Amino acid sequence: MMDFAHWLPIVWAIILIAAITIYVILDGFDLGIGMLFALERDRGRRDVMVNTIAPTWDGNETWMVLGGAVLYGVFPVAYATLLPAFYLPIVIMLLALIFRGVAFEFRVMTRGTKREKLWDRGFVVGSGVAAFCQGAILGGVIQGVAVKDGAFAGGPMDWLTPFSILCGLAVMCGYALLGATWLIWRTIGPLEASCRIWASRLALGLFVGIVVVSFWTPLLHAPYLRRWTDWPNIAFVAPVPVLVVLLGVLLVVGLRRGHARTPFLCALGWFLLCLSGLGITIWPYAVPPSLTLWDVSSPPSSQFFQLVGTAILLPIILAYTIYSYHVFRGKVTEADGYH
User: Fold this and answer.
1) Distance between CA atoms of residues 38 and 44, nearest Å
2) Which residues are paired to 291 by β-bridges?
3) Contacts for 62 with CB less than 8 Å, ≥ 6 apart
4) Regions of the chain where pLDDT drops below 70
5) Are 67 and 286 in contact (CB under 8 A)?
6) pLDDT digits 0-9 by tens, 17-36
7) Which of 53, 194, 232, 325 matches a 20 to 30 Å C-alpha distance to 45?
8) DSSP state, 195?
9) Long-range contacts for 297-300 (Cβ within 8 Å, ≥24 apart)?
10) What's the sign of the alpha-carbon dihedral 6, 12, 14, 20?
11) In Å, how far are 109, 161, 232, 263 from 122, measured between CA atoms?
12) How far apart are CA 207 and CA 212, in angstroms?
């Protein structure tokens, strides 16, 4: 029973990490395309950008909902601690996502009118604010939350620090890179050419962000530094920065040689490596730097009950997501309509 109770939080942590990773991958390039609207002025090309994500974008938030449900049901102490710590950026993020969704649909309904430009700006602002808030929340979690007697003991603005701002800007840059490389894969002509230029600049910005955050993070807490520098840990984590550099080289080569999928896959690889580095850094804390997974978990019986339901629903969500992206695969042109 003790072994069973010990392993359940680990299983749920893997599910939570998987949900967050899939959300970042899928909604990341959606938000990135929204931010790239600020760079593309041509109305027809903007329509093409939207049409590459229109059939699938509204299902991506499913993974955010799953992550929130796991946090609430399986790690209730973490939920009760993190929510008040990040209440303000979470509310701003949700409002931005709602406004972005409204702008996404209304720009089509107001096509050809003066209000179309207003909703285009709303799409840009909603996407950018949501991306920044997600990065700032991530940075706030990494830098740690003040906890006393198992409850949040800090202030409402503790999350807003230079480190969290840097993380917010880095995520904005990363999402924009995902959006640009997605459009390279899915479009042709002048739009694809412009995206290659944007992607090369965004890749440099993201690489600088990764380097700065990577050097800053171990200095936040002593356990973080030991995790990356002590032997034998360093033997396991050393491949992460090496792979970051390697993927960067492949990304640049893919952009210069006209590859369609390689830049997007390399950008995804960067995100996966960053998330793996985050996991390595904060494990086994659910609320760094004080509460572990086992400190914040619900009773084993409750975790097992929810695991049964998740084992049924998760394959369905995965199948729907894979099928929808398979159906709407291929290049998108200005001749294609809005789905």
Assistant:
1) 14
2) 287
3) 317, 321
4) 1-2, 4, 334-339
5) no
6) 888 888 888 888 889 998 99
7) 325
8) H
9) 297/8, 297/9, 297/12, 297/74, 297/75, 297/77, 298/73, 298/74, 298/75, 298/76, 300/1, 300/4, 300/5, 300/8
10) negative
11) 14, 27, 50, 28
12) 9
Domain boundary assignment for the chain? 2-327
Q: In whole angstroms, give the CA distance from residue 129 to residue 172.
A: 9
pLDDT at residue number 326: 82
Tokens of 218: 């171990």
Alpha-carbon gap, residue 143 to 163, rounded angstroms: 8
Query: Which stretches of 59-188 are DSSP H helices?
Result: 61-74, 76-85, 87-109, 115-143, 162-186
| Closest of 204, 218, 188 to residue 333, by C-alpha | 188
| C-beta atoms surrounding 155 within 10 Å | 11
**How high is the pLDDT of residue 1?**
44
Distances from the Cα of 249 to the Cα of 42, 175, 204, 246, 270, angstroms = 31, 19, 11, 5, 12
Let me know the angle formed at the C-alpha of 147 by 146 and 150, rounded to the nearest 5 degrees: 165
Is residue 73 helix, strand or coil? helix
* Residue indicated by tokens 């291929």: 330
How many Cβ atoms are within 10 Å of 269's Cβ, its own excluded?
17
Report the pLDDT value the prediction gives residue 262, as an integer from 0 to 100: 92
Residue 270's pLDDT is what? 92
CA distance 60 to 62: 5
> What is the total residue count of the chain?
339
Tokens of 14: 């893997």
- Widest Cα–Cα separation across the chain: 65
**Do the beta carbons of residue 210 and residue 232 sit within 8 Å?**
no
The residue whose two tokens read 């973080």 is 224
How crowded is residue 54: how many other Cβ atoms within 10 Å of its Cβ?
19
Question: What is the Cα–Cα distance from 187 to 184, expressed in whole angstroms?
Answer: 6
